[in-house]
Amino acid sequence: MTALIDVVVTEDITGAPLDELAARRQVVFRPDAWRDRTGLRDLAQRARALVVRNRTEVDDDLLGAPDLRIVARVGVGLDNIDLVAADRRGIVVSAPLGANAISVAEHTLGLALALARRTARLHAGCRAGEWDRSAGIELHGGTWGLLGAGATGRACGRLARALGMRVLAHDPGVDPDDAGLTAAGIELAPLVEVVAGADVLSVHLPATDSTRGLVDARLLARMRPTALLVNVGRGEVVDEEALADAVESGALAGAALDVRAQEPPSPGRLETLDNVLLTPHIAGITTQSQKRILSTLVADIDAVLDGGRPASAVDAWGRGRK
């Protein structure tokens, strides 16, 4: 009989909390396991716990492993995990919701400021011997629009408020009476009002049937030509060809994408536009956030494997269990 493995790490995930876990439990690190479905399934069949990021497809087949007890998601996106199947099979899915919200918010704000002040373009010009002192724009006094008012959206809204901006948000899943919105100074509004009124529109949405392709040509046409778009949610939410059309034509002043429909993407039109900033899905990855996330997940792994109650389990709808 093949021996069980306490914990299998299927992607390039490292950190002190995992090292500490490996000192007391058997932890197998396979950073490329997600690439080989057959090998991944074989590992899962022996695992009691899986640690994944966003590249491992945790479907019903993988969740059918006989001794699997917990899937720990490093990060907060859950679209690569079949939550309904996990719930049906009694497998815990642990996700530290909100643990990287500050990191995502700071990156979002940084991208917006870099677009507004043309930082990347001016940097390249200075390195080439140019001295372009044409004016940028201030964000103070403008309106920041949020598509998604979960943990990262709210953290971003608080930073935008600190800049002296009005913050509007559209999120049908949020209770209008949620005290957290009021505390953050965020106003809920219809989608059309948020999009049309935003000087900066940031996307904080997961990839679902209702959000894929939401930011399409029609929605982009409702934005101000002076507006900026920042996507830190999921790449599938934005129609990249429509976005390229809008930026290239001047219908939109600029865009920044931390997430892409295909990751890593094949170079295309967006890569050629100097008012488009691109980063490799790192908005939530900081030293501090990774330590918070891994510490939370390790605690949940220990709890589940020892027969206890995890603190950061989510239900079939991706919400924290009470």
Automatic annotation (TrEMBL):
CDD domains: PGDH_4. Residues 8-314 form the D-isomer specific 2-hydroxyacid dehydrogenase catalytic domain. Keywords: NAD, Oxidoreductase. Residues 109-283 form the D-isomer specific 2-hydroxyacid dehydrogenase NAD-binding domain. InterPro entries: D-2-hydroxyacid_DH, D-isomer_2_OHA_DH_cat_dom, D-isomer_DH_CS, D-isomer_DH_NAD-bd, NAD(P)-bd_dom_sf. Gene3D superfamilies: NAD(P)-binding Rossmann-like Domain. GO terms for molecular function: NAD binding; oxidoreductase activity, acting on the CH-OH group of donors, NAD or NADP as acceptor. Belongs to the D-isomer specific 2-hydroxyacid dehydrogenase family. This is Phosphoglycerate dehydrogenase. It comes from Amycolatopsis taiwanensis.
